[in-house]
Amino acid sequence: MPGGVNSPVRAFRAVGGTPLFIESGSGCRLRDADGNELIDFVCSWGPLILGHAHPVILKAIQDAAARGTTFGAPAEAEVLLTEAIREAIPSMQMIRLVSSGTEATMSALRVARGFTGKKSIIKFEGCYHGHHDSLLTSAGSGVATFDLPDSAGVPENYSHHTISIAYNDLEAVRGLPGDVLADTAAVILEPVAANMGLVPPRPGFLEGLRQFTRERNILLIFDEVITGFRLCYGGAQKLYGIEPDLTCLGKIVGGGMPLAAYGGRAAIMERIAPLGPVYQAGTLSGNPVAASAGLATLRLLVGEDPYRSLEEKTNQFLDPVREAIREKQLPVSTATMGSMFTFFFNGALPANFREAKKSDTAAYAKFFWHCLERGVYLAPSQFETNFVGTAHSTIDLEQASNTILSALTF
Predict the structure, then answer these.
(1) Does pLDDT of 96 surpass 70?
(2) Looking at 238, 270, 303, which one is the last position of a domain?
(3) Overall pTM > 0.85
């Protein structure tokens, strides 16, 4: 495997040292191949809001697998899952299930171009929308971790119709030339950026984008692969009261299995084959095991409604850390939203990718290893987001908070 891993950030190149190999996970804890037990705030990069090996989700997976792992044909679980998604996110009037967030965003852009007949896409620097060719310019997350402006292997003309703007800069979008905007099919963004570290939208940014795109007949695509069912049941669009034209989901919606979704207004989605000329397909799309895991997760989230509790737990966990940072005037800032958080080794909270890149990545690496060696597993990159889940107990969070405090003052 290139670098010994199947996804780049797992290689620990941003923090140095040898990456973890995981033997098992239960609740909020991981056990690595060397027998170390860790409090996990990576949570498989976001999906595990209910923790590792949740018994209800495991049973749903086992029951589905016993009936058959894949059919390449419609099955009840995918219908029930899409109905649950549509009920939670009414803007997704019609939905297509796929197997990864990259597939979801790639397909959403294709249908946006097919629906509008236009070519260009506007994205925001530091927002990562998967590894497909047209969007690997000024992307965040793993691309930022390895300090790559884009990716080798992508012909220049693939990104010719991709326009990158600083996140939170509404005026830069409004200031684009008229001929460019006339050929723009869609604006795509993470409504709450989580791939340059956690960077929330400024007041009025999302509302202004929605108004601007509607006036210009440009589709607005929310990439809620991370924020969907994480910030609230219904995603960032429910939290902010904004209805995009298309939405991409992943991570939590698959319950820890490979599953994602994209969807939106019926008039747009009806352009997809077999109803229309935009082709997209996948043998394992909506397979019954992954769909059953996702459905079990959404049903648990509806029943437990953990979001207020998760936000309170996250703040209680971080309050002593914030206080220590203020008292000692440390060059660290904490970004939080709901159950998501990032420690920026940066004197001020970033508002965009350029500001996030000013963070001291060497200091973050030392901080990361101090925590890991004491049993707290944070994201192995300054440019990733951490997560609190329902499985994190008060004792777990107190232990982690004390460890983080010791790392900051080390």
Answers:
(1) yes
(2) 303
(3) yes
